[in-house]
């Protein structure tokens, strides 16, 4: 099980808050491409896998952000196995990193013209917020890992 799945309720709550405030859709996918949280269109595919040839997979492999804000003919999107059914118009995707490991991705996406316009007009603000979203998840996972290490140390002492 992924660390992200352990805190999926917290991630879902944060996703819903950000979506409501920013008027865009959010999602989080773990290192196995399993969607652990999502709003709007993404909500209906929580606990489903994203395609192996998606932008999410590309970010997981590269560890680099992907901004698909201006190119409707993005080659990665066109080669994705969901290309025919995908309703996502624009996206910002960042990796979630813990101890140099990429454990998932966070994404803001648009599914209509209003969201499209907001993502382009507020690109810098949204990117900054997306970074904070990723960092808050990273900090939560680091806390879980630290507690696990402490518990293992206590078990060894008492063992």
Protein architecture, described:
- With 159 residues, the chain is of the alpha+beta class.
- Helices cover 48% and strands 20% of the residues.
- β4 (90-98) and β5 (101-110) form a beta hairpin.
- The longest helix has 36 residues, at 123-158.
- The two termini are 26 Å apart.
- The relative contact order is 0.17.
Secondary-structure blueprint:
Blueprint: H1 3-6, H2 8-22, E1 25-30, E2 35-38, H3 55-62, E3 66-68, H4 75-79, E4 90-98, E5 101-110, H5 113-121, H6 123-158
Antiparallel strand pairs: 1-2, 1-5, 3-4, 4-5
Distance between the termini: 26 Å
- Structural class from helices and strands? alpha+beta
Q: What helical percentage do the residues reach?
A: 40-55%
What would you report as the Rg, rounded to the nearest angstrom? 16 Å
Low-confidence stretches: none
The strands making up the biggest β-sheet line up spatially as: 2-1-5-4-3
Largest pleated sheet: 5 strands, antiparallel
Shape: globular
Quick structural overview:
With 159 residues, the chain is α+β, with helices and mostly antiparallel strands. It has helices spanning 3-6, 8-22, 55-62, 75-79, 113-121, 123-158; strands at 25-30, 35-38, 66-68, 90-98, 101-110.
Give keywords.
159 residues; alpha+beta; 5-stranded antiparallel beta sheet; 6 helices; 5 strands; 48% helix; 20% strand; globular
């Amino acid at each position: 099980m992924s660390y992200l799945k352990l805190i999926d309720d917290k991630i879902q709550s944060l996703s819903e808050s950000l979506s409501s405030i920013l008027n865009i859709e959010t999602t989080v996918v773990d290192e196995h491409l399993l969607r652990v949280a999502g709003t709007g269109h993404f909500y209906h595919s929580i606990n489903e896998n994203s395609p192996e040839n998606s932008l999410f997979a590309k970010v997981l492999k590269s560890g680099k952000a992907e901004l698909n804000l201006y190119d409707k003919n993005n080659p990665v999107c066109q080669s994705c196995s969901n290309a025919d059914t995908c309703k996502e118009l624009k996206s910002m995707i960042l990796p979630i990193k813990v101890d140099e490991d990429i454990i998932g991705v966070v994404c803001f996406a648009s599914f209509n013209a209003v969201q499209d316009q907001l993502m382009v007009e507020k690109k810098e603000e949204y990117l900054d917020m997306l970074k904070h979203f990723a960092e808050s998840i990273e900090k939560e996972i680091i806390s879980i890992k630290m507690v696990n290490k402490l518990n293992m140390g206590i078990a060894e002492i008492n063992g």
